[in-house]
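The record is given unchanged here:
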Amino acid sequence: QVQLVESGGGLVQAGGSLRLSCAASRAIFSDGWYRQAPGNKRELVAAFTTGGSKNYADSVKGRFTISRDNAKNTLYLQMNSLKPEDTAVYYCHASPWDIWGQGTQVTVSS
């Protein structure tokens, strides 16, 4: 079955760090992270472009880093200096196939 599985979410205090992982099944790969807070639209957090460069939302630049391990077919999101406004469900996305993971909750307490 073609799927993306996120992990690594949780509860952390403001200023803390988390690393999210997105494992992809064979034949697909994920290339972006999005998030959705209650009452808000899903928004781009970070993504690889087709040229291999990285795009970040202004709100996370300098704090979050997207990376990938091609051998493991896994995408990562390192999140540092977390803020309460980063609280959301985080989803990974495989853009060529428009496939989404199930999401992982990140909660940042003040």
Residues 14 and 83 are 5 Å apart (CA to CA). The two ends are 40 Å apart (CA to CA). DSSP finds no helices and eleven strands in the chain.
